[in-house]
Design a protein that fits this description.
This protein is an alpha+beta fold. The chain folds into two domains: 80 residues, Winged helix-like DNA-binding domain superfamily/Winged helix DNA-binding domain (Arc Repressor Mutant, subunit A); 51 residues, Dna Ligase, domain 1. The protein is 39% helix and 17% strand. The protein has five helices and five strands. The strands form two sheets. A three-stranded mixed sheet has the order 4-3-5, with no helix packed on it. A two-stranded antiparallel sheet has the order 1-2. Helix 3 packs across helix 4. Bound molecules: zinc ion (3 copies). One zinc ion binds next to loops.
């Protein structure tokens, strides 16, 4: 699917600016800040980039990755399977974690607590292999 079709499917207007930013995000493997986006797109102020990333997150096009230093980054979702992140406290490296037993946890929350989980958020932090 093209990026403009993706925007429309997410119920956002496919403005040329949004299409450009979304395509750029899709090429990036590392989570990026609004500042990174503004630096790469001269026509965008930091505030505009910040708002645009917020819209993308609210409409399910990007996933927020929170760092313990308070910076908020986003990562393009596309057709990547659901996963979580580990961020190294020392060097900031990001690892994409595909948790094997996640669906069992969600299922057991439903069974033992009667909860229907529609959203969850897990973040992992610590030291990566080379910083230990
Ligand atoms: Zn999950
Ligand atoms: Zn590290
Ligand atoms: Zn990821």
């Amino acid at each position: 699917m093209s990026h403009s079709a993706q925007l429309r499917q997410a119920r956002l207007r496919a403005t040329p600016r949004r299409v450009r930013v979304l395509s750029w995000l899709a090429k990036h493997r590392r989570p990026v800040t609004a500042e990174d986006v503004a630096n790469r797109h001269q026509s965008l102020s930091r505030m505009t980039a910040f708002r645009m990333l917020g819209d993308f997150a609210n409409h399910g096009l990007v996933q927020e990755v929170r760092y313990r230093d308070g910076t908020r980054r986003v990562e393009y979702i596309g057709d990547r399977p659901h996963h979580h992140h580990f961020v190294c406290d020392h060097c900031g490296v990001v690892e994409h974690l595909h948790l094997k037993h996640e669906s069992h946890i969600l299922q057991s929350l439903k069974q033992s607590h009667g909860l229907k989980i529609t959203h969850h958020d897990m973040a992992f932090a610590g030291l990566c292999r080379s910083c230990q």
